[in-house]
Amino acid sequence: MIKQFLDKNWKLRCQGEPEQPAVVPGTVYTDLLRNGRMEDPFWKDNELRALPLMENDYEYEVCFDISEELMAQDRILLHFDGLDTIADVYVNQEWIGRANNMHRVWEFDVTELLRKKENVLRIVLHSPLRFIREEFAKCRTLGSEDAMDGFVHMRKAHCMFGWDWGAHLPDAGIFRSVVLLGVKMARLDSVYIRQEHADGNVVLHLEVTEERFPNMISCSDKGEVCDMEAVCSTENIPNVADTFYVVEIEEPDRTIRRYQASPKEILIEHPKLWWPNGYGSQPLYKVLYGSYTGFSPVFAQELCYRAGLDGDYPASALSQEGVEKLSHVFSSAVTHIRSGNFTPNIAYEHGSPAEFSVLPLTMYNQGNRQDCNSVSAMLEQYYAQKNALTRIRQKSADLRRIVQ
Fold this sequence. Notes:
alpha+beta
């Protein structure tokens, strides 16, 4: 994943007023205070003059370029770690969404909106005071007596609206980082680890969710664009590349154990225990995840077939001769891919389309393979035939239900 932080050259403006320099991450109050447009709101009764400032809407704007490397990614996401609070987001004059909760992350797909130079990101922050006033008029819901009426309707830090000891300063702003994320094919979306302790050992149960971003591929001569399932590589080579994750566990003695091929469970034998202060040491185990792109399971099986190896055989048990055979086949396949020497083909089982690839799937008999004129024709034919078979099966099932 490639990151480009948008943390420079921001401007702030209020309607009817000239723009002024702004700092992101930051807030409206901190920018106004830095630029001498307001006094310290925590001094004496300055709070009374600071509060009406939030009757206004404020706009943050930044102009930025993006690198060739970022432009080459499959998806570019605009990622906000903290928007406070009611905000409309625009990229190059296009509205891309609204935020209404300062307690969460906001992300927008901007892949099709960005250009290499002079992109403009504009964020309109709407008045929190008007919002709570309008919502309170719709539904009279009371909260703390000292807080402002209607604050409970807004997913914003409620202490900003006053407390038994707190000032009424409902600020607004971009209070955490803004970053462009460039993703190739997939990324780790969430990782959850459960521990199962038994017989002095621990089994780590890994629940990993990947978010996949398949390439956009032309599926017909009419120029139609299909967002295919993530069977497509980052170079538009269908059913050759896929994603997997790798887990690294660093033990307290700094020994690192690496687990390939998206493990679901990991056994830690006789782990060192963490003791409360004064009762023993606090050994720390670190778990690191990484997402990678590699050959798809279909083509990995094909490589093993070409090398005369059992694809279900563990790699760690291969002989030196087996490793050399697999390495030779691998190098040959990579050479074909880099040279663009593709042969789009569909493999069939029992008359039904089973797999497709841009390199010959020799593990299927020649009579069970059909070559296609182009990648687009291959994809169109494969999915059209799959859809037709699905419809036939559905009609057959419907007829059986009627007969019964």
